[in-house]
Amino acid sequence: MNKANRGWVLESYPVGTDFESALKLRDIAMPEPGPGQMLVRSLYLSLDPANRGWMMMPTYIPQVPLGATMWGFVLGRVERSNLPGFAAGDLVSGFGAWADYCLMGADMTNKLPDLGGLPLYAAQSLFGLSGGTAYVGVVDIAKAKAGEVLVVSGAAGSVGSLVGQIAKIQGCTVIGIAGSPEKCTWLTDELGFDHAIDYRSEDVAARLKALCPKGVDIYFDNVGGPLTNAIASCMALRGRIVLCGSMAKFANPGPELDLGPILLNRVTVQGFILIDHFDRLDAANAALADWAASGKLKHKADIVDGLENTVAAFRMLFTPGAPHMGKLLVRVDPAAL
Amino acid sequence: MNKANRGWVLESYPVGTDFESALKLRDIAMPEPGPGQMLVRSLYLSLDPANRGWMMMPTYIPQVPLGATMWGFVLGRVERSNLPGFAAGDLVSGFGAWADYCLMGADMTNKLPDLGGLPLYAAQSLFGLSGGTAYVGVVDIAKAKAGEVLVVSGAAGSVGSLVGQIAKIQGCTVIGIAGSPEKCTWLTDELGFDHAIDYRSEDVAARLKALCPKGVDIYFDNVGGPLTNAIASCMALRGRIVLCGSMAKFANPGPELDLGPILLNRVTVQGFILIDHFDRLDAANAALADWAASGKLKHKADIVDGLENTVAAFRMLFTPGAPHMGKLLVRVDPAAL
After folding, report:
1. Are residues A99 and A119 in the same domain?
2. What is the pTM of this model?
3. What residues of chain A lie within 8 A of the CB of B246, using their CB?
4. Which residue of B60, B256, B273 is in closest CB contact with A259?
5. Which of B80, B213, B280, B318 has the fewest CB atoms within 10 Å, measured from its CB?
6. Any B CB within 8 A of A243 CB
7. Taking CB atoms and an 8 Å cut-off, how many pairs form between chains A and B?
8. A103 CA to chain B: closest CA distance, Å?
9. Mean pLDDT across chain B, nearest whole number?
10. Is A254's Cβ below 8 Å from some Cβ in B?
11. Quick one: which of B43, B32, B50, B27 has its CA closest to B103?
């Protein structure tokens, strides 16, 4: 195989959000799949806040080593497979790399579910990790019930936009927190959120106290940082906080949660990462497909064309007020779709 | 009835730990029980960190108003009763006041359980709120299991000393955090804790990492403040933090918990106050009585004589390194026992 391959190589650890200095697009060798691996042609790259964490420290996976082609979730087509159950031509979603071609193993790799006429990118904007996180987080972890008030931050993002809609389907009153008037309008007018709060121009705690004087039953936290404590001060008795993301922590390190109101209101704070719940993905995908087919659940992908634009797009995730909504994806090669 | 009555009147809200300026022992009127109330002769006052919170802000009860005789948990004997089910002469434990005589209603009032030959103060040092909090916290909230590592702060206190012993009975490895070498020695040599750490002279996080390299499964938090974050950084995957007390917060207001490790390790943080679990008190008292009878569970009361010494004793609770161990009680009138 003599095809060319390019990849984003992690040449230094990023300082702040200067990803351009740390990651360089290089011509790299075509990887050779070993036993239990496959070579995958990338179609879409999923850009996720978690990618930044992987560069900065050991998380639920080891820290990305310098010299590695940056790790990421990839939707692609199998070129060659040494992995039982997968064959050339299969469409797969899994843990790969920001490159034209990458290797995937069995861990966190799935064949695409039946997309039922939805566009290919729905495998990342509706199903898979974003939809799975939203579904399991709302249904299994928060156990959202009809009549409860659910607040979600990062509400215009890939997980948040689905969280709010799934909570509406469960019968909750839903309030989204986002970073621009355009995002807030999208949440209420397109996605059916009851209210939206622009955290960049409004006092979130004051608005929450006005909107839900009995308190917030569930806070689905996609961002961490100072917003978490502001919302935690508005919880109802025996409320639940689902910790799902912490992208705001990069700019606000250190302790952020005052435990006084947590104790007094007997609140539960639960760290949640989908990797503990992969056994629920089939149920999640089935429900998501039903809701999408009946028009109850909308999904949106914000698609950037070209592998060469990956890092500039990635930076948007950490730019307050950036215009992207829904799932941020890189279409690696339109000709390959 | 022409008996004299004295009570600690809250004349101003305390600044820091200057309780002496805020609370004054005064001759007060003998209260007259209304419908559903009884007049109780105080035998022992239970001194609890929660009393300070009640003075400073609304909690799960309203803030103590200025001019009130300070509220507190009291073990006493009924003098006159307008409360069905209670009669003069009954020994009761409940929500009363720091006074020779106080009123009690039905809320949070219990007749004493069968003390089985234990001294009267066991109703507060072993049974009741301290023992109930320890039992429900370890068994129902933390769900401590054999083989797990449980760390408890305020370990030489009324709740903490029982928490550690109950966790040992469940088969846990138990590490207590306390504020003097004497307290640490008591925990390991008398109560059977596996280890004790003096937070005033040792690096708690470093010791925990050495003692339990696989991490802390359960942190039973009786104090809040900076210690909470130090221990939270040592949690095992899917560990649990039971928030039960926050006395250290008075000296350390503001956010204390970094949610990064909570998310990454999928830790659960649970606010816990016994008032939600009074239906479990009978089961708690039965288990506590059995364990005490078989010698598996020790309880200790640190008894200060004289209503006039109440406030000086109360201050000990907030004095790091103060000598009291176990349950801090005021014996109001030895002649009345």
Report:
1. yes
2. 0.94
3. 259-260, 263
4. B256
5. B213
6. yes
7. 102
8. 26
9. 95
10. yes
11. B32
Q: Does A264 touch chain B (CB under 8 A)?
A: yes
Nearest CA among A92, A94, A96, A156 for reference residue A129 = A94
Report yes or no: A257 at the B interface, CB cutoff 8 Å.
yes
- In a domain? residue A205: yes
- CATH assignment at residue A31: 3.90.180.10
Burial class (CB in 10 A: 0-12, 13-18, 19+), B77: middle
CB A68 within 8 A of CB A46: no
State whether A263 and B243 contact (CB < 8 Å).
Answer: yes
Both A143 and A246 in a single domain?
yes
ipTM confidence score? 0.93
Judge: B271–A266 Cβ closer than 8 Å, yes or no: yes
Cβ A260–B249 below 8 Å, yes or no? yes
CA-nearest residue of chain A to B258?
A255
Does the beta carbon of B263 lie under 8 angstroms from any beta carbon of chain A? Answer: yes
In a domain, A213, yes or no: yes
Q: Is residue B324 part of a domain?
A: yes
B59, B260, B266 member nearest A276 (Cβ): B266
Tracing tokens 């650890």 back to the chain, one arrives at: A13
Q: Are residues A80 and A162 both part of a single domain? A: no
Q: Which residues fall within 8 angstroms of residue B318, CB to CB, at 6 or more apart?
A: B17, B49, B52, B247, B250
**Structural domain range at position B10:** 6-126+299-336
Average pLDDT over residues B236-265: 94
Kindly give the pairing relationship between strand B110-111 and strand B101-104: unpaired
Same domain (yes/no): B110, B176: no
Residue B183: pLDDT over 80: yes
Top-confidence residue, A241 or A113: A241
Residue by residue, DSSP assigns A228-244 as HHHHHTTEEEEEEEEE-
Q: Which residue of A has its CA nearest to B59?
A: A264
- With CB atoms and an 8 Å threshold, state whether B256 touches A254: no
Among the candidates A275, A292, A317, a domain finishes at A275
* A184 found inside a domain: yes
- Determine the 3-state secondary structure of B110 from DSSP: strand
pLDDT tens digits along A265-314: 999 999 999 999 999 999 999 999 999 999 999 999 999 999 999 999 99
Residue B91 pLDDT exceeds 90: yes
3-class DSSP string for B116-131: CCCCCCHHHHCCHHHH
Say whether B269 and A259 touch across the interface (CB within 8 A). Answer: yes
Distances B212 to B148, B183, B231 between C-alpha atoms, Å: 10, 21, 12
Count how many domains chain A has. 2
Q: What is the CATH number of the domain that holds B256?
A: 3.40.50.720
Condensed to tens digits (0 to 9), the pLDDT of residues B137-172 reads 999 999 999 999 999 999 999 999 999 999 999 999
Judging contacts by C-beta atoms under 8 Å, the chain B residues touching residue A245 are 263
